[in-house]
Specification:
This protein is an alpha+beta fold. About 45% of the residues lie in helices and about 15% in strands. It has three domains: about 190 residues, Gyrase A, domain 2 (2-Layer Sandwich); about 60 residues; about 40 residues, no CATH class. GO terms for molecular function: flavin adenine dinucleotide binding; NADPH binding; thymidylate synthase (FAD) activity; thymidylate synthase activity.
Length: about 300
Amino acid sequence: MSLSPEQQAEIDELRANPQPTLRVVAPGMEGHLYKARPVLDHGFVRVVDYMGDDAAICQAARVSYGKGTKSVQNDEGLIRYLMRHWHSTPFEMCELKLHVKLPVFVARQWIRHRTANVNEYSARYSILDREFYIPAPEHINAQSVVNNQGRGDVLEGEEAARVLEILKADSARCYDNYQTLIDADGVGLARELARMNLPANIYTQWYWKVDLHNLFHFLRLRADAHAQYEIRVYAEAICEMVSDWVPAAYKAFEDYRMGSVTMSAQMVDCLRRMLKGETVTQENAGMSAREWREFQEVIA
């Protein structure tokens, strides 16, 4: 993990000078505040600020629904009801602001979640650090033969070594040329132009602020086993933070989103036929080969 000396000094000062507050405090999240969690080889995630807790979700729901929630006996039951029935607004009352350091190609996946506020490190004004994501040997995979956007078997031996050599050499060469382009004694090119020569595995940083409802949507997709490893490890780190911040909401999220499955009408029909003892195959199921494979994964 690579925090700059200035970032570390800021964190140390903030942690050394706690401030009294009248706002809601979540003890579990206080333990994460201003601490950088290492991710990948040079990346990190750290909590900069947060708002709300489990009680804030219930407070908002009871204002919205009034007498309609009086049959729910406790906050945890109410939160589970809200999650189960896809009520999103109460979860929007909680917010989280993160400082994230991540490879550019991961950032381009991440930014597709357009429901957050983002401010990214600017390579127009500043010079990017000489830090690149180089995957560990166990994460160098061949292309999947069944999924056009997935990984297949792990490469080994000379093949893996050759991939690593190419990645390291190309990264170093691109950064050397970047430095030459921006060096006043060299070309003196504008930084906004010189940056276009940098590879997608160089690290960038941003502040990312999102409400809990949209954060859960992000985590449902990116912490899933099918997500790309390099973004999944960031999502998994955030999951640990969120589980300490809003434990009741996170448990409901695990049960009704992460641990649940969605089936099409055809899948439900096939499952009912199977429960009746009927032999169901792809040919008589009315599904494509991919849909049938996904259905088999669900019921396995």
